[in-house]
Amino acid sequence: MRATGRTILRSTVVGAIAAATFAATGEATAAVPERVVLNPTERPETSQTITWRTPAADDGHAVEIRRPGEPARRLAGVHSHVLRDGRHHTVTANGLLPDHEYEYRVGKGDDWTAWTTFRTAAKGHPGTWRWLYNGDTQEGLDTWTPWIRRSYADVPDARLVIHAGDLINAPNQDEEWAQWFGAQKGVLERINTLAIPGNHEYLGTMAKLPFVDHDGTARSFRAHFNHPLNGPAGLRNTAYTVDYQGIRFIALNTGDNMAYDPSPQQREWLRGLLRDNPNRWTVVILHIPFFSSSDQHHSQSARVRASWLDLVEQANVDLVLQGHTHSYARGHVGGPDGPQYVVSTSGPKYYELGEPGADWKAHGATPRLVVGETSTYQEACVTEGTLALRSVITGKGDATTTTLPVGATLDAFTIHKDGRSKRVTDGYECAPTASAPTGPAPDALLRCTSRDVVIGDVRAGARRDLVRAVAAPDRAGDRAVLRRRTSTSRTWRTVARATVGADGRITLRARRTSAPGARYRVDVGAARSVVRTRTQPVRITGATRSGARMRVRGVARGRARVRIQARSGCGAWTTVARVRADRDGRWDRRVKVADAATVVRVDVAGARRGARVRSIPAAIR
What we know:
Number of strands: 41
CATH topology of the largest domain: Purple Acid Phosphatase, chain A, domain 2
Strand content: 35-45%
Oligomer: single chain
CATH class of the largest domain: Alpha Beta
Shape: globular
């Protein structure tokens, strides 16, 4: 919305982020592609859309994609166009396998991005999985940067991130897009983004906002994102639908600042999507909410209610995600087990609440919670029978109406479905079968080693070796270099490069070597990891926890006897179980641990001198 509300810190150009993109002035000057983002297609199980930006004169770019350990193929059909000083490129990779990991890079000549990994969607319900949702960013992007990075660090296994409009304040100010993408560098390249335009992606008139031109067709938004073109005519890429792992996501365009009434053009489209829906879950995303949670915008919410509220209620949609009013609210219409309407803000701009929930109550809705001057991110956890959502506080204004601290859960609820029945309960019920995120836990490894970069796992492959490492989160976006030496050569050779993710995680792959005694190290700037050998007699492949119960799985050499240890923080290791691997070297054990235990490791007796060889610690979740 217009900058008439309360803002605790306005957006400024951050030098480090601007340098990481093209230029603070908006002029594209860097050679390596930037602003790489993944958007899902209509068939996210077998295809993937990739979009990026280069200098305006830099054409002829390509995408190379491969499965780990296999040769890369170059994709044809890269489309590009120039908008102001940048050239925006997009391509869709088809013919992929469901629920498989792929690596890709974009560029040309000597100017390529690092190889980055993504995973295609699974068919149907893959078990427990997570995604993130954020309300308006808009202003104070420098303040917002650590807030959004916190969400990615807290939920490193998120498969999607949703942004419900007003990503930036002025769409033609390219430094704002530079900051927005810079804050999420290392993440948007590997998980899918579902974004919708808010009124600020179109902006108002010169009279109201004289510092920037009107963008009546959301050109900047449509250049940066390429969603499925399955929306109503004239609104493609800004209104769309995606079926992803058992959820039908429907993105609506609420049309503010574009002289557009949303009722006639989207109503029948929405009706059809809700009527013919093979998915168990339905999530609707829109910018202007059905009920305003601040002391303004009531007339805008009335227009949206008149357009779609009856359809959402009749279809018993599960979840409605909204933004625009720069506060947090959650409620329902009619019974408490109907559609759950959530409004949130992720940035530091706030509006006065007035009477909390007044617009809800005036139009037959029940506000369960309304909180002012409080920024959050939302984590969703999905199984076949439950959809849980919790809001976590990332920032607060001077006039916040909650006493909960930053980092606390502000709100949480779970939707249960069993056959034809549905009920909503308070609390975040995320199934204990959820898989732990792959790779090491940054805090657990860095904190206890006093290092800025640590190798967490080395896996020898038939064609390529996989090395996972972690660096401090403030290294996000930096270049990590994998080096190797063998017993026949004392020289460290560079064998792979990658970008440090927003949560500090690093994944590198190197072509395997036949030379004996291979060892690896990872460098990030001047920081250097300790050396890890290529071969490991025992390895953890998975660790999950539910309360005081923990399940640990792994592989060893032959029928080795494995000792499992756990510790809390950097305290002493405690043996919690011993298990014998089967003839294939696999082992799996459920044990009791202290609720505070956060890290596990395993070891086996060595063949010589009774030495013990330990695995690298892994986090339990």
